[in-house]
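Same chain as my last thread, 423 residues:
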Amino acid sequence: MSHARHPVRQHARVLAAALVGTSVEFYDFYIFATAMALVLAQQFFPADAPVGQMLLGFMSLGIAFFARPVGAIAFGHFGDRVGRKSTLVASLLLMGGSTLAVAFLPTYAQAGVLAPVLLCICRFGQGFGLGGEWGGAALLAVENAPAGWETRFGSAPQLGAPVGFLFANGLFLILGFTLPEADFKAWGWRIPFLLSAVLVGVGLWVRLRITETAAFAKAKAHHMPPAIPLGVLVRHHWQALIAGSAGVVSCFALFYLCTAFALAQGTGKLHYPRTGFMVAQLAANTFLALGIVYSSIWSDRFGAWRVLGLGALLGALVGSVYWLGLSSGSLWLVFITLSAALFAMGMAYGPLGGWLSGLFPVEVRYSGISMAFNVGGIIGGAATPVVAQGFIDGGHPHFIGILPAVAGVVTVAGIAWTRRLKR
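reply #2:
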């Protein structure tokens, strides 16, 4: 007698394509953030900048978040009209090319003001590519999921975040152990950007072997795709778009407080040893993965909106003691603080693929979830580290805890709005 295959085994190729592609994309995204915290701000911005090198560095990080909605519009258009697969291949190529280009950029000492301009262009390219990445990868998984497994399948792209972070920070950690400080600052920081080309090649190989999603193929067989999906989205689904964007804010705020911002403060103002702090951060990344896995399982059982709201509230709670733990002087307390915050972030991140997909119909779903995810990223990911750095520079670091609390309120408000729309 034959036995049905386990859903994960049956769809292993699809899940691998969703995970591997986003892992590569997030690796590209994070090596930029990590390098900025460690060296790029000093290499690409003038030392006598009126607002400070590090603040300029975080502002350049934020450029990608403003590029992401632009990418979401462009890739969402083709993803809803042409298909998920080909759009995902294009987004990966753009992201990889922008990252590789950073390895060859001249520094401020070599090219003056041209250096930060080129750096910002590359960062814009990263954001543009990632704007079309996550939504397509989430749909690739969710639209192929068996009934009752939507959020678990939809968590595959989210797991790309801790995997990409592991490779990015792990590589910088290895370079810190093997290279003298002077060599790392002179040329060693370019190595992770060069290696991106290899990872992009792996991602392309996996993605070119998959087929189109069943939901998109079925919808296209029965109806012509809208000529301008964004127009349909804005006219008929604008409330879901705003509410979905709000639901994303908490996870982004927590993540960038715990990664680029924490690394910059830990190795700068707080004077922790660089390798020790990066080990603590890398170990805490495990709890992000655990949060994503558990939240996706619980979401399919209890409802994605409930678990998402719980994650946002946990993030607000952890945020109230975030700076106390980070500035404690103990790497163990730093590890505990970052682990708790990243677990809460995983709880608010894991359900997003399944939750956002349920807010939009198939014909505008790529545009809808991509726009919501990336607009929420601007609010949570771009603004949070800049405002937090402003609190530091202004002598009020204890105010940083307000940021995840506000982000949590915004996310819960977005969830409540979607519940009202469904009723």
